[in-house]
Amino acid sequence: MSLDHHLLEKYWAGLCTPAERKAVEQWMSEGIPEESYKLRSPEPESIMKDQLWQRIAQARQEENEIQQSAKIVRMPIWFRGFAITAILILTIGLGIYVLNNQSPATPLLVYQELVLPLGKKASITLSDGTKVYLNAGSRLRYPKNFSKTERRIFLNGEAFFEVAKNPEKPFYVQTKQTTTRVLGTRFNIQSWKGYFDKLNVEEGRVQFTAAGCIDTLILHANMQGVFDGHSLVQSVVNSANKIAWTKGVMVFNDTKLSEVTAELERWYAVQIHLSDPELANYRLKARFDNNPSLIDVLQGISFALNIKYQIKDKEVTLSR
After folding, report:
1. Dihedral angle sign, alpha carbons of residues 280, 291, 132, 11
2. Which of 8, 25, 130, 263 could be joined to 93 by an S-S link, Cβ 3.0–4.6 Å?
């Protein structure tokens, strides 16, 4: 597998597939990059070094926090040296290096991150004018200013995009499993842990690809692409229903109750328990308008499926 700055960015953002992560870490352990890179930046060398070491220190702190309860594995001293070198190279890979045969200087890409807790939604406008509506429980990582050749952001969760048109600079949305490429259009992406990635197009033309999959989908308005972990599948849908959440509307069209409860947990920051595992396969067809309250939704579900609900603090139990 060849390494380029896109793969390094994915690794840094924690969005690599297991195969991609293995390839990058193999490259790291060797200690020598496959290709030679030059660092070019308008910043003085001393400032660049400070910025790089700050990122390395931050990465170490985040890793320590994550692994506090994990088993400690001691690395040989020689590998630690290579690891530090690799982190430095990965930091450079966030946008401050170019290939030897490229002459224009590449400015440092400063990344920002918007992380939403459960129960909260938000919208932002990126530096190119693109509008992003982020659903509850989602995370968006994006550069403060895009590079000269492309616009690439990273998503965990769900977001609706109104991409500003720029034929000279394609817009990419990278998730852990898929890549969406557009020039200017409107679409919705779902990339939740434990669920298939879904792309729904409201307007324009969108390219949809997945890691380790040879398929490529070209989707138009009212079309959906799904990556099931092995292949890409397209279908015709009502895109208005897929983006209704941006207007405070919940639409369920023959949706499994297990998926409905997952959506409710994100919307209302609650935990929902099913007293009977068979309830997970119940299917719901319903619509809730005007930013409905949790009580309104639970009453509607209770009536439609002939089930009961009980609320205690931030926990909900559904039963027959």
Report:
1. negative
2. 8
Query: CA nearest 96: which of 134, 137, 45, 62?
Result: 45
Residue 236 sits in the same domain as residue 252: no
Residue 235 has which token pair?
Answer: 């279908």
Is a pLDDT exceeding 70 seen at residue 134?
yes
**CB burial string 214-244: b at 16+ within 10 A, e below:** eeebebeebbbbbbeeeebebeeeebeebbb
Calculate the CA 266 to chain-centre distance: 16
Its pTM stands at 0.70
DSSP structure class, residue 73: -
pLDDT band at 266 (very low <50, low <70, confident <90, very high): very high
Containing domain of residue 289, as a range?
A: 248-319
The DSSP call for residue 127 is T
- CATH code for the domain in which residue 235 is found: 2.60.120.1440
- Is 233 strand, coil or helix? strand
